[in-house]
Structure formats: C-alpha cells, structure tokens
Design brief:
The protein has one domain: Rossmann fold. It has 9 helices and 10 strands. The strands form 2 sheets. Strands 1-2-4-3-7-8-9-10 form an 8-stranded mixed β-sheet, with helices on both faces. A hairpin with a 2-residue loop joins strand 5 and strand 6. Helix 2 packs parallel to helix 9. It starts with a helix and ends with a helix.
Length: 297
C-alpha cells in the first residue's frame, strides 16, 4: 500500500513539473526586436508618444522566408488581452506563413477612448494628428520591416470588438497609411461614413466630413466581419447614437455596411468594402480569427 501511495505521489510530482514547464514554454519573454519565434517588444519608437509605450506580442514563423511573409497587425478587445489573441492566431500564422503582431495598449496610459477612437480628441478638442494613438502604427511597421528585412510595402489589420472599432476608425481617419486589407470583426458600435451625423457616430465635425474624403474611404479594402450569433447586449454601448445603429453587434455591423452602400450609391461612388458573416458564431474572438485567416490568407 505504501509503495502505491509513493508511486502516486511520484506521478503527481512529474505531472505538476511538466505542467509548469509547459506554462513556462508558452509564456513570452521580452525581446529587443522582432525576431523569428515568439516574443514581446515594448515599443516606444514613435517620438510623440514615447512616454506611453505599447507592448507588441508577436509570432514570426521560423519556417519560410520572413522577408516575403505577409504582415498582420492585430488589435484585441477591451480587455487588451494581447497574449490570448496571439494564441488564437499562432497556428494560423505558422500554417500560412504570416507574421503576426498583436498590439497591447496599457490601460494605465491609454483610456478606452484613446484606444477605440484612436486618441483623436481630448474632450471636444481635436488634437494634432501626430498625437493620435492611430499615428504610431506606421512607425511600428517601419520597425518591423527594419528588424525582419521584410520586402512587404503594405500590411493587413484585423481587430475584434474594441479592436474592430480601432480598425474601422483607423481606416476612416488615416487615409495615407500603407494598409492593404482591414478587417473589423464584431465591433460594438461604429463611426458611420455619414457627413450629416455628428462624431463619434458619424463624420460631422471631423476633417473627413467631405464628399471627396468619404469617396476615398469607400475605395479602401475594408471588410466588415460579423458573427451571426453576436446578439448578446452584455457590455454594449446603449447611448442614443449607438442604439440607432441596431439592438446588438450583429445588427449594428449590418447597418454600418448597409449605410455605406446607401451613401456610396447616393454619391455615385464605388464601394470597395465587403461583408462576411460567420454562421452561429457569437462574440468569440478565436473563432472569428480562424474565419478571418481564411478570408485574408
């Protein structure tokens, strides 16, 4: 009986040790740059926001030529759980030979508005573009190209929930970026491409409130990505402006896309956007990431 007890203790100890080793192997360490494998870079290379660094969790497949790999920037939900989002993308990135960089904007230095609305305003004051949260993304891309030797001239962006809000506004208000394709997945509410609706629910009172700028926005490759079961109102913005877009995230995403169709038709513009729906998926970033990978790569 004593031998059996001792054997059980030994087995448990081995299992616990192996679990701890697995945990350690999955945790990401700080790295000085973007190198093959996994890591985290604390990025302060954009001078106007150097005092508010962001943490970038990344996966660069060790197989394949990283100089030729697509570059994907990922923006997490309101919890800023970049490690979880990288886990959701890692296998897809390795299988498809894509470099993935997940942005973590620390809650201590980036408020909700500074994240999902790109830090464009301080109160009612429109800040200089150099101070926007949006403005550091291009600088990160320059650093990625430098560290990896990438020959890519453009990058893709994918965001879910709060990150989807960041993505569609990034495309809306940053016309000169090197974004190729942008995927906004399950956003809670939108800035409509409507010059007659006041910001933040439309473009009125912003520098995009012109027909030519809206036409330029419609020419971008924006994908509205929706889970058809994302109908829970938990945590949803219930302001009048948001409720006018629909009762839940799924309805609001459809409304956003339909308004783009309506306005582009009215103004005689071509709409280069797409909408993809994922049947039966709710507010689930991992499932949306898997579907997004198939769309993009």
């Amino acid at each position: 009986m004593m031998r059996v007890a001792n054997l059980l203790i030994l087995i448990i100890a081995v299992l616990m040790t192996s679990c701890f080793k697995d945990d350690e192997s999955e945790s990401l360490g700080e790295t000085s740059g973007f190198l093959p494998g996994d890591g985290i870079v604390t990025y302060s290379g954009y001078a106007p926001l150097a005092d508010r660094p962001v943490r970038i969790h990344f996966h660069i497949p060790v197989n394949g030529d990283m100089k030729k790999m697509p570059v994907l920037f990922v923006f997490p939900g309101l919890e800023r759980n970049a490690d979880d989002y990288l886990n959701a993308w890692r296998a897809e990135a390795s299988n498809r030979e894509v470099m993935v960089f997940v942005f973590e904007f620390p809650t201590e230095t980036y408020s909700t508005a500074q994240y999902i609305e790109g830090g464009m305003f301080q109160g009612n004051t429109l800040l200089d573009r150099s101070e926007w949260t949006f403005s550091l993304i291009e600088s990160v891309f320059d650093t990625v190209r430098k560290d990896t030797g990438s020959s890519r001239n453009k990058y893709d962006v994918w965001g879910h929930s709060a990150g989807a809000q960041f993505v569609h506004r990034y495309v809306t208000f940053m016309p000169d970026t090197r974004v190729d394709r942008a995927v906004s997945a399950n956003a809670g509410w939108y800035t409509l491409p409507d010059v007659d609706v006041a910001y933040p629910y439309g473009l009125k009172n912003t520098d995009v409130a012109t027909t030519s700028r809206v036409a330029s926005l419609f020419a971008r490759k924006l994908i509205v990505h929706l889970g058809t079961a994302d109908t829970d109102r938990n945590g949803l913005n219930t302001s009048a402006g948001a409720e006018a877009q629909g009762a839940n995230r799924y309805q609001r995403g459809k409304y956003y896309f339909s308004e783009a169709n309506r306005i582009s038709t009215k103004d005689g513009c071509s709409l280069n956007w797409d909408k993809y729906e994922v049947a039966g998926v709710a507010h689930e970033y991992a499932k949306m990431a898997a579907a997004g990978a198939k769309i993009l790569y």
